[in-house]
Amino acid sequence: MADAIELKTAPADFRFPTTNQTRHCFTRYIEFHRSNCRCLAAKGEESNQCEKFAKYYRSLCPGEWIDKWNEQRENGTFPGPL
Amino acid sequence: MIVLEWLFLTIAACDAAEPWQLGFQDAATPMMQGIIDLHHDIFFFLILILVFVLWILVRALWHFHYQKNPIPQRIVHGTTIEILWTIFPSIILMFIAIPSFALLYSMDEVVVDPAITIKAIGHQWYWTYEYSDYNSSDEQSLTFDSYMIPEDDLELGQLRLLEVDNRVVVPAKTHLRIIVTSADVLHSWAVPSLGVKCDAVPGRLNQISILVQREGVYYGQCSEICGTNHAFMPIVVEAVSRKDYGSWVSNQLIPQTGEA
């Protein structure tokens, strides 16, 4: 058995207090991919802050949605404020 | 005999549907315990009202039988009694409303950040579970499908229409966030012992917070009509100790890291 699995996940976000967390997942995805460009540009590698956003959206969003959005970003058809 | 019976009942908890069951399954979360307590509170007043109404009804039928009482009375007003039969039900309603609202608002309280997020994705006709807290990239590291075990493949002692091949393993006494959604049509993720029923809507992520208080295996079934095999896509949650959960996750992740 490897070292203990860390039990950490995306924290509760007070911007999204209700049951519907669709917007929460979308916002985290945008926050990462928007800041990712800035982080990469500024520091040339992903900083811990960006990696945190990445962990959050991966925890919240279904894999299918992430794949679809990645594809849309590559095609330039992503419907969000990046 | 009674002592033996009592011992047996406390050892074997009811976390799945039983034949001819009348009451709730045993609670495994504070929410379900709250629901059961509220049910007991309301049931008390229900019995009071039922007995009172039946008594008046039977009394009226008995004493005002048309042969014994051929001339009906014509009472039209009665201010005092009208006030009484308005005030008393209001008081009863207040006694019912207080625990009800207490439970309702406490359900919405976000007290502690969850330790784990598990996604339950409904398909026709099975569930997919994603444990994405351990992803190091956009690739899913821990995801699996959960199909019902067909009747022909059941082993002795297993529950018909309830067993699945891959259970949802969770650590007990840990705050969980379950995100429920669907990949095609409406489904509903329901586990009565945990006091959980949450619709799986395509394009929407519904969040529920649970804290499973004891280790055990909890059964539930899809609760929103979703086609031919709607009755054949059950849910099984297995709550284990944190250590066992850690081992289970490590074992699931190893093949991926081995390949990578």
UniProtKB/TrEMBL annotation, chain A:
Top-rank taxon, per record: Eukaryota
InterPro entries: COX6B-like, CX6/COA6-like_sf, Cyt_c_oxidase_su6B
Keywords assigned by UniProt, alphabetized: Disulfide bond, Mitochondrion
UniProt signal peptide: none
Gene3D superfamilies: Cytochrome c oxidase, subunit VIb
A GO term from the CC aspect: mitochondrion
Location in the cell: Mitochondrion
Disulfide cysteine pairs (residue numbers): 25-61, 39-50
Major subcellular location class: mitochondrion
Functional note: Component of the cytochrome c oxidase, the last enzyme in the mitochondrial electron transport chain which drives oxidative phosphorylation.
Family: Belongs to the cytochrome c oxidase subunit 6B.
Alphabetical list of PANTHER family matching this protein: CYTOCHROME C OXIDASE SUBUNIT 12, MITOCHONDRIAL, CYTOCHROME C OXIDASE SUBUNIT 6B
Designated name of the protein: Cytochrome c oxidase subunit
Native species: Gossypium raimondii
From TrEMBL, chain B:
Family classification: Belongs to the cytochrome c oxidase subunit 2 family.
NCBIfam families listed in its UniProt record: CoxB
SUPFAM superfamilies given in the database record: Cupredoxins, Cytochrome c oxidase subunit II-like, transmembrane region
Protein name per UniProt: Cytochrome c oxidase subunit 2
Catalytic activity reported: 4 Fe(II)-[cytochrome c] + O2 + 8 H(+)(in) = 4 Fe(III)-[cytochrome c] + 2 H2O + 4 H(+)(out)
Cofactor: Cu cation
Residues covered by the Cytochrome oxidase subunit II transmembrane region profile domain: 16-111
Entry's cofactor comment: Binds a copper A center.
Gene3D superfamilies: 1.10.287.90, Cupredoxins - blue copper proteins
Major place of residence: mitochondrion
Role, per record: Component of the cytochrome c oxidase, the last enzyme in the mitochondrial electron transport chain which drives oxidative phosphorylation. The respiratory chain contains 3 multisubunit complexes succinate dehydrogenase (complex II, CII), ubiquinol-cytochrome c oxidoreductase (cytochrome b-c1 complex, complex III, CIII) and cytochrome c oxidase (complex IV, CIV), that cooperate to transfer electrons derived from NADH and succinate to molecular oxygen, creating an electrochemical gradient over the inner membrane that drives transmembrane transport and the ATP synthase.
Membrane topology of this protein: Multi-pass membrane protein
InterPro entries given in the database record: CcO_II (IPR045187), CcO_II-like_C (IPR002429), CcO_II_C (IPR034210), Copper_CuA (IPR001505), Cupredoxin (IPR008972), Cyt_c_oxidase_su2 (IPR014222), Cyt_c_oxidase_su2_TM_dom (IPR011759), Cyt_c_oxidase_su2_TM_sf (IPR036257)
GO cellular component: catalytic complex; mitochondrial inner membrane; transmembrane transporter complex
Signal peptide: 1-16
Keywords recorded for this protein, A-Z: Copper, Electron transport, Membrane, Metal-binding, Mitochondrion, Mitochondrion inner membrane, Respiratory chain, Signal, Translocase, Transmembrane, Transmembrane helix, Transport
Lineage, top ranks: Eukaryota, Viridiplantae, Streptophyta, Embryophyta, Tracheophyta
Family matches, as Pfam families: COX2, COX2_TM
Annotated transmembrane regions: 42-62, 83-105
Molecular function in Gene Ontology: copper ion binding; cytochrome-c oxidase activity; oxidoreductase activity
Gene that specifies this protein: cox2
Subcellular compartments: Mitochondrion inner membrane; Mitochondrion membrane
Domain (Cytochrome oxidase subunit II copper A binding) ranges: 113-251
A GO biological process held by the record: ATP synthesis coupled electron transport
